[in-house]
Q: What sequence folds into this?
């Protein structure tokens, strides 16, 4: 179902996209979570700032009054920016639960499984996607995740590569952090995990794919590793969310990717094939028909890649669902309605995809338990 664009000038492609805009603008936005209070005009719209991320998250958290949100600094970068983990659960009154082993009641709720989500690990292009870079858009995307708090706790790192996020705003192509290296600064954090690490060849530090001097050489990847190490027994899904390219003229569309990247051999696991079917059905049943979401392996999307966080979660920790959510960029200078289109991509495409993923994970857990 992936959209395949002909090799034509960006201006011509923009006309085709503009028709898609018109189609989507005519559709009614689906119902979204009522758990949150959107940031209003008085709040402004700001970039998520590596230098003030905890304060911004505190303000954003206040928009979810019925939710328990805590923030924890889990690392610090070479530029002394905090790596912040949001731990999110339902704000329920304590309920009494029966403990059969000692014939008593306890004021302890059963522990939920965790969905672990990472934004801003791969920073290329995310400044052009509001839900990954601006507080207003991020708040709305967060509301889609939190719709499923009745089934899961959610751990979220909003800016997993804050140094690289800052650098990417001043460079056309940048997808690394800024740690000092021999020739050029920076390591691609999503190639720095200890799974088939750099097993193909030696890559120059000037490459945007540079995996570092060794696995987990970077504070950012170590922070994510430590979350897996501490909570891996409760994590049922890992999602790495990022932009699909550095420019809107490179159109590959929206995608949900699954392991593996380091091998073209397919996993003998029907759950990802079933997930593809669920997402395809959600897109077919949507009121608009012009948009599709590719569901495929990392290898089929990128070619062979090594040291990715998705493969690490799946291969090393055995996380049942390990996914990469790839968001398409749309040019904000080609036509007037593009901001509405970006909003529609979030509210009409990704809201459905996120709902399908969480629902599929929940169903899979309970089918496995029975």
A:
């Amino acid at each position: 179902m992936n959209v395949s664009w002909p090799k034509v000038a960006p201006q011509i492609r923009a006309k085709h996209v503009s028709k898609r805009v018109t189609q989507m603008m005519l559709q009614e936005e689906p119902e979204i979570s009522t758990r949150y209070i959107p940031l209003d005009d008085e709040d402004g719209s700001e970039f998520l700032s590596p230098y003030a991320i905890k304060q911004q998250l505190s303000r954003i958290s206040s928009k979810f009054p019925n939710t328990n949100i805590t923030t924890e600094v889990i690392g610090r970068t070479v530029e002394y920016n905090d790596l912040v983990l949001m731990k999110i659960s339902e704000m329920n009154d304590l309920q009494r639960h029966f403990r059969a082993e000692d014939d008593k009641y306890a004021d302890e709720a059963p522990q939920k499984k965790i969905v672990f989500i990472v934004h801003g690990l791969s920073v290329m292009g995310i400044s052009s996607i509001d839900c990954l870079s601006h507080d207003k858009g991020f708040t709305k995307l967060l509301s889609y995740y939190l719709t499923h708090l009745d089934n899961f706790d959610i751990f979220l790192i909003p800016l997993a590569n804050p140094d690289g996020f800052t650098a990417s705003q001043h460079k056309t192509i940048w997808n690394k952090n800024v740690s000092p290296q021999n020739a050029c600064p920076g390591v691609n954090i999503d190639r720095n995990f200890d799974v088939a690490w750099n097993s193909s060849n030696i890559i120059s530090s000037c490459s945007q794919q540079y995996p570092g001097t060794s696995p987990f050489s970077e504070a950012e990847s170590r922070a994510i590793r430590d979350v897996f190490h501490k909570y891996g027994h409760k994590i049922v899904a890992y999602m790495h969310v990022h932009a699909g390219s550095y420019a809107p003229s490179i159109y590959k569309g929206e995608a949900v990717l699954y392991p593996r990247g380091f091998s073209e051999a397919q996993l003998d696991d029907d759950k990802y094939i079933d997930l593809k079917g669920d997402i395809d059905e959600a897109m077919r049943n949507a009121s608009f028909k012009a948009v599709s979401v590719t569901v495929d392996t990392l290898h089929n999307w990128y070619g062979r890649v090594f040291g990715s966080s998705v493969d690490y979660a799946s291969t090393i920790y055995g996380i049942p669902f390990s996914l990469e959510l790839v968001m398409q960029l749309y040019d904000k200078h080609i036509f007037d309605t593009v901001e509405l289109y970006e909003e529609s991509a979030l509210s009409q495409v990704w809201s459905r995809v996120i709902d399908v993923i969480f629902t599929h994970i929940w169903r899979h857990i309970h089918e496995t338990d029975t």
